[in-house]
Each structure stands twice: as structure tokens, then as C-alpha cells.
Amino acid sequence: MATYLDLQTNIARDLTRSDLGSQIQGAIQDAIKQYERQRFWFNTTRSLTFQTVPGRINYTGADLAQIPNIIRIDRLFLRWGASTYPLDWYEPDEFEFLTALNVSNGRPTIYTYVDSQIIMWPQPLMAYVIRPHMHHRLAPLVNGGDSNAWTNEAENLIRAQAKLVLYMNVLEDADGAARMQAQIPGLKAGLDYETSARSATGRIRGTEF
Fold first, then answer.
1. Which of 80, 87, 189, 207 lies at a C-alpha separation of 20 to 30 Å from 26?
2. CA 201 → CA 73, 180, 197, distances in Å?
């Protein structure tokens, strides 16, 4: 798999510059920030779970590494025996009001997400398996050997966006920036198409507002 260092090396080679190490790293991070808020097949999941702890309502990265990096929870499901239950979402202020007036133990039925934590109520009476369907940030690229979808599946998009940042803010090359601006929509469209194709069900579903 391609790594963070491979991505940096490819950009330096494209630009025929060997003196932009820190600037290239910064441009890559800026490019990832640009696109991590958008949903692709590789930053949405329903395959991760964690377990509740009896009497504890707050769940953090210690329970599931992705929890602090959640951008949106689509649904939260609780598994109990052979049954699966969807939990209802409450806004943080609604959740605060409800839980302040009620102290209860049982099977959680509602949740909120605040302060990078999933909070559920009632307090779990036992260990339940929780499965979030979520859009989340990938683990950050820090070391040269680090690798994730941004250095592989979306490498072309991140590479072009990073070069756009460099052309505009470091090299002040308007022609180079224009070339990247012409390339990026097609690269993004390719990822969008694959995301749609991977998630297609063949059924028409109502839009969530």
C-alpha cells in the first residue's frame, strides 16, 4: 500500500522540486481537510462496534477509536440477544433536560453526540453491543510509513488538491493552479461515482432533511 511518504515523494516529483518538504506535508493536510467532510465509501462505515459498560453513559475513543472523529452518526443500533434496536437521536440540550430529570437504568433507547463522545440513556444495565452507522475522519497521517485511503483510493484527488495549494500559496504559479483546477472535478466525480455504486441498493429511498 502507498504511504504518506510515497504521496509526498510523488508530489515533489510532479513539481520537480526537492526543497518543499514541510510545505508539501502542509498542503497534503490541507487537501485532506478539504475532502474529509465529504462522504466516500472509505470514510463511512457500519462494520465497527463497541460495548456498553453497566452504569456508564459516556463513550469515547477508549471504547472505539473512531468516536472522537465522528462527523455524523447516521444511526446507532443496539444489539441485545437476537434483537437489534435503533436508538433515537436527541439534540444535546434536549438530552440534558431529559437526563437531568430522570435517573434510570435499563436498555439505552436514546443518544446524543457532544464533546467528541457518544452519550446514551438510560444508563446501561448490562453490556450491550453498539453499532454506529457513521461518517468519520480517518486516522491522521503523521509518520512517513502511515497509510490510509487518502494515500491510496483517493491518492489522485489529494495529490492534485495538494499541488493546487502549493501552486497558489507557495509557488504562485497561476498556470499550474489552473491545470489542477481543471483536473480536480473529474477526480472527485470518479470517487463520487464509486461511492454511489458501492452503496446503491436498487431501491428508491426518500431524502432525509
1. 189
2. 20, 34, 9
